[in-house]
């Protein structure tokens, strides 16, 4: 967890609620009010050459560096979803463009800017890379501590009063991307000690892309598929049963697994059942394959277990069920399998491998599911954005209509006033006319009188 | 006379080279043979053996389907420009200047204002920015590539043209600084400073405003437009007779460009 200073804009006054930014963990060293050694090493020009100890020159010194840096980061944070380009920044900064470009590249590479920009126009390489690290992404992200509830309440009040538009809760906003949840997955990956994370990543990508169904798996790894055939069938049956049993809604399932008191394995098992059978099968396949590659004994064990499976299908069924019941009934199940297979000495090893494979499968499936949820959330976000924009447009249209009405009313009033004005003038004229007519004869008479 | 010493950590004079990371010389070829014209601009590594030039010229003529009569003048042009570059080599050039407010000194710590004003095929691009000629780690090609990426310029010829334009200006400044050094050493007369003195003074004062202890390196918002690239795309029919690359460096009059730009605006 990061100290809040790292993730919030320190320049903001303390009284107002601070703006929260989620920044990559790799850039957690950053401080607004200091210059870290990383910066000194990456850009020695500003700090008096290679050592980074001096004060530089008039155009290159720590003060100038901080001005550049703070401006660029501030500029990016004006709209974190947009990719900030060097050409855009450079017009506002006086200085050697070569040096500025180096500085910009450093900030970009170290995740101080453009870390959550989505509108990257022409960077396919970067996008690919992003897809490649899907499994690790949660671990690499740093989440700021949850601000006090009052902060949210304030925000909600303000938003609700203004537009009267309430956003439906996102599927995974609360439960999947909450730090606690994510840490579970992260630590699970570590504890499993698979050592072949790359393969997992590959697998997860493939499965979620929908490119990899069971057929493909079989073709690509015909050797190992034979080995795990029994396992696949088992898993499929199992999950099919479960889903046929209850068909719980996604949210319910998620909430059931949110509970932090249940064990990790139980949560994994629940997540496992939540995905489709072919994802599960692919995960299982990859798990056995990786295990086999890691340890030739494991492969042997699986082959043996397959033979056994053919002989007595139900015995390995127990083992497979461990996938879903590892948590509380762990010891109990172990005992069962023990009694089932006491006759063979090597069985213990086999069981261990199978449990390992099952755990790996569960983790893989969980990861695949996480990615699916992320995708889903993205779609939901897009939808929401679209609806927001639509409502805003409607609002604007209403306003325009309103103004048009106002204009019509104004016009009417204007004509009415004009009429009144005309009639007033007429009245005045007639009254003046009357006055004159009344007065002139009188004057004439006066004149006549005085003349006479 | 107020004198501020700058750039203490840098050597004040180095032997002549392009003030960039790669010592590449900008070459501009403009030859006309039998009514056919060939204009081109590229960079050349002066360390390459001269035998490369002839093969390059032959190859270029072949690729562009030019008659073989183009090869000798092309060769001559490139060799002449390389010879000029080499004539400067071995001499010292000054990269660092002291900022004297009362004297006309063009650059602060070697930072000069470069201007780009180019028309490449159908793209017109204008830009200006500060370039530190004392920064021997600079890379015009990389800069031009970033610019084109950021602005989504699709024409692949624009980037190299910008880079060559930058190199030409740097080359000019570097060769001038060699002559300044030469004259300072011989002490015959006061060295003429860079191109225009009044402008240079303003430049230096401007820079002091930015980098002085009370200044800020962040430009005022209303000045931003001066330092951002402006791009115009001209439609084909307005591009004029020669569809070939036309490069206008800042030294050339901008009239033509303005006319072209106006024409494009009127058509809109």
Automatic annotation (TrEMBL), chain A:
Q: Does the keyword Ubl conjugation apply?
A: no
The answer to keyword Cell membrane applying to this record is no
Looking at the UniProt entry, the stretches that span the membrane are: none
User: Which is one Gene Ontology cellular component term of this protein?
Assistant: nucleus
State the organism of origin.
Answer: Eleusine coracana subsp. coracana
Q: Which InterPro entries would you find in this protein's record?
A: Homeodomain-like_sf, SMARCC_C, SWIRM, WH-like_DNA-bd_sf
For this entry, the protein name equals SWIRM domain-containing protein
Gene from which the chain derives: ga31628
Domain of life per record: Eukaryota
Q: Which keywords accompany this UniProt record?
A: Nucleus, Transcription, Transcription regulation
According to the UniProt record, where is the region Disordered?
A: 310-329
A Pfam entry, by short name: SWIRM-assoc_1
Annotated SWIRM domain ranges read 21-124
Automatic annotation (TrEMBL), chain B:
Q: Where are the transmembrane segments?
A: none
Map out region (Disordered) in residue numbers: 238-268
Query: In its keyword annotation, does this UniProt entry include NADP?
Result: no
Where do Basic and acidic residues bias regions lie? 238-247
Q: GO terms for CC?
A: nuclear chromosome
Mind listing the GO biological process terms from this record? chromatin remodeling
Q: Which family does it belong to?
A: Belongs to the SNF5 family.
Record protein name field = Chromatin structure-remodeling complex protein BSH
User: What organism is the protein native to?
Assistant: Eleusine coracana subsp. coracana
Tell me the organism's taxonomic lineage: Eukaryota, Viridiplantae, Streptophyta, Embryophyta, Tracheophyta
């Amino acid at each position: 967890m990061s100290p809040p200073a790292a993730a919030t804009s320190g320049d903001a006054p303390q009284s107002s609620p601070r703006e929260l930014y989620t920044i990559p963990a790799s850039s957690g060293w950053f401080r607004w009010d200091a210059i870290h050694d990383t910066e000194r090493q990456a850009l020695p020009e500003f700090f008096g050459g290679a050592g980074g100890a001096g004060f530089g020159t008039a155009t290159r010194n720590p003060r100038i560096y901080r001005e550049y840096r703070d401006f660029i980061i501030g500029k990016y944070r004006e709209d974190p979803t947009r990719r900030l380009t060097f050409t855009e920044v450079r017009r506002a900064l006086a200085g050697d463009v070569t040096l500025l470009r180096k500085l910009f590249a450093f900030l970009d590479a170290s995740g101080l800017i453009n870390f959550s920009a989505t509108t990257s126009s022409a960077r396919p390489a970067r996008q690919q890379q992003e897809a490649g690290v899907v499994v690790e992404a949660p671990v690499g992200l740093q989440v700021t501590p949850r601000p006090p509830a009052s902060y949210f309440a304030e925000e909600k009040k303000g938003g609700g009063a203004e537009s009267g538009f309430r956003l439906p809760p996102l599927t995974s906003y609360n439960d999947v991307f909450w730090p606690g949840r994510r840490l579970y997955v992260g630590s699970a990956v570590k504890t499993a000690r698979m050592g072949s994370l790359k393969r997992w990543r590959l697998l997860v990508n493939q499965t979620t892309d929908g490119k990899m169904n069971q057929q493909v798996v079989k073709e690509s790894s015909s050797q190992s598929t034979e080995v795990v055939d029994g396992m696949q069938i088992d898993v499929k049956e199992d999950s099919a049963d479960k889903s046929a049993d209850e068909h719980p809604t996604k949210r319910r399932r998620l909430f059931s697994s949110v509970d932090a008191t249940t064990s990790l394995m139980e949560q994994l098992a629940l997540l496992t059942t939540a995905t489709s059978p072919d994802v599960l099968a692919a995960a299982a396949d990859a798990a056995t394959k990786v295990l086999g590659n890691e340890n030739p004994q494991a492969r042997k064990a699986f082959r043996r277990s397959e033979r056994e499976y053919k002989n007595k299908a139900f015995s390995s069924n127990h083992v497979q069920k461990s996938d879903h019941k590892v948590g509380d009934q762990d010891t109990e199940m172990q005992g069962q399998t023990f009694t089932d297979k006491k006759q063979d000495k090597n069985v213990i090893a086999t069981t261990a491998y199978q449990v390992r494979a099952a755990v790996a499968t569960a983790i893989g499936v969980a990861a695949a599911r996480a990615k699916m949820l992320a995708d889903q959330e993205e779609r939901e976000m897009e939808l929401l954005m679209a609806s927001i924009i639509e409502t805003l447009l409607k609002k604007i249209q209403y306003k325009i209509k309103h103004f048009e009405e106002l204009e019509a009313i104004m016009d009417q009033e204007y004509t009415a006033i004009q009429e009144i004005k005309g009639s007033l003038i007429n009245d005045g004229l007639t009254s003046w006319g009357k006055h004159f007519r009344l007065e002139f004869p009188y004057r004439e008479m006066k004149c006549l009188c005085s003349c006479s | 006379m107020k004198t501020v010493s700058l750039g203490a950590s840098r050597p004040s004079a180095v032997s002549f080279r392009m003030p960039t990371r790669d010592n590449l010389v900008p070459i501009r070829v403009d030859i006309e043979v039998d009514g056919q014209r060939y204009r081109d601009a590229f960079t050349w590594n002066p360390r390459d053996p001269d035998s490369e030039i002839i093969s390059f010229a032959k190859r270029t003529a072949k690729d562009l389907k030019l008659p073989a009569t183009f090869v000798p003048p092309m060769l001559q042009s490139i060799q002449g420009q390389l010879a000029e570059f080499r004539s400067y080599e071995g001499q010292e050039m000054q990269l660092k200047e002291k900022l004297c407010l009362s004297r006309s000194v063009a650059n602060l710590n070697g930072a000069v204002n470069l201007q780009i004003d180019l028309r490449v095929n159908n793209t017109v691009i204008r830009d200006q920015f500060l370039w530190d000629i004392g920064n021997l780690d600079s890379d015009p090609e990389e800069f031009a590539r970033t610019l084109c990426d950021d602005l989504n310029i699709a024409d692949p010829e624009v980037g190299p043209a910008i880079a060559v334009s930058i190199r030409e200006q740097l080359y000019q400044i570097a060769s001038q600084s060699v002559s300044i050094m030469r004259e300072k050493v011989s002490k015959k007369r006061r060295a003429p400073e860079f191109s225009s003195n009044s402008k240079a003074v303003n430049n230096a004062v401007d820079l002091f405003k930015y980098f002085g202890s009370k200044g800020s390196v962040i430009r005022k918002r209303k000045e931003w437009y001066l330092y951002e690239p402006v791009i115009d795309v001209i439609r084909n029919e307005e591009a004029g007779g020669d569809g070939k690359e036309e490069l206008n460096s800042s030294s050339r009059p901008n009239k033509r460009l303005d006319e072209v730009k106006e024409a494009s605006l009127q058509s809109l």
